[in-house]
Amino acid sequence: MLTDSFGRTATDLRVSLTDRCNLRCAYCMPAEGLDWLPKPEVLTDDEVVRLVGLAVTRLGISEVRFTGGEPLLRRGLTAIVRRVAALSPRPEISLTTNGIGLDRLAAPLRAAGLDRINVSLDTLSEETFVKLARRDRLGDVLAGLAAAATAGLTPVKVNAVLMRGINDHEAAPLLRFCLDHGYQLRFIEQMPLDAQHGWRREEMVTADEILAELKLGGEFALTPDDPTGRGSAPAETFLIDGGPQRVGIIGSVTRPFCAACDRVRLTADGQLRNCLFARVENDLRTPLRAGASDDELEAIWLRCIAAKLPGHGINDAGFLQPARPMSAIGG
Ligand code: SF4
């Protein structure tokens, strides 16, 4: 088992399948994009499936989430999902996407074995979408959401990041939209993981502010959900008007949940990260390509988890943002 020195066991593997993306979200990367990982450094489909297989069959991983960059850009995505779904024990398989292309891929991914999906949606305004993502693709995202629901990837979860002075007034409209469509909305505090290192705490919209914004005008009566039901889930959930519908808040910065963390990450270029904010990575790609055995690869996983820190340290004096940006780590 992947148990760290604080007694937390990693059972949730986040796999970034690419660092490339077809959006340029302001809280993630500069408008001109980034220098993408050279193709030879990116794990092949067989390498991804071998490492995920090892983690599931030998290391107690029971959940696998595919992320990016934008995972829908990965040509072999559907085949990878199908091969991971064939593993025994079968892990729960989920995906985090910006939704572009999901209208075409939702049904094939579902048929391949995808269980759950999270789609990023920060605004309902085309103008604000262009301002935030520097692309005019809101319609594609909304079509992707509808296709995910039709394909049975329910409950479809929506992730929203609010930026001060840009879309922070849209908390209630986003919630109303999701309730009307049966989507489960979660707001995520903006984290210091952008490639341009432009994150400023005072510009971040906090969990408290999001809750206040949602309660404004009395449209939604929010009550805390049963905390015992949270487990290691990042989202703190609130019942809306007594339930059963809920809204989630992921207060990574102001309400950290590291004490119950069960996550470990694999990057598209085969580096293991024991935390989203890890400043040290463990290389799996080089030994893998050099013919390492499963025992040798397993030893690297165990070493990585053994070195896991108690938390992200964002609120500690001297916090340093990791060199690798969010777009090359994945959610
Ligand atoms: S910041 Fe790191 S330790 Fe905290 S919950 Fe996220 S991955 Fe886990």
CATH superfamily: Aldolase class I
The CATH topology: TIM Barrel
CATH architecture: Alpha-Beta Barrel
Order of helices and strands: EHEHEHEHHEHEHEEEEEEHH
Q: Give a short account of the largest sheet.
A: 12 strands, mixed
Tell how many strands the DSSP assignment holds: 12
Helix/strand structural class: alpha/beta
Topology summary:
Elements: E1 12-16, H1 45-58, E2 63-67, H2 77-85, E3 92-97, H3 102-112, E4 116-120, H4 126-133, H5 138-151, E5 157-160, H6 171-181, E6 184-188, H7 207-215, E7 222-224, E8 236-240, E9 246-250, E10 263-266, E11 271-273, E12 282-283, H8 285-289, H9 294-306
Helix pairs in contact: 1-2, 2-3, 3-5
The structure holds iron/sulfur cluster (SF4).
Iron/sulfur cluster (SF4) binds next to loops.
Question: Brief overview, please?
Answer:
The chain has one domain: Alpha-Beta Barrel (TIM Barrel). The protein is built from nine helices and twelve strands. It has a twelve-stranded mixed β-sheet with strand order 7-8-9-6-5-4-3-2-1-10-11-12.
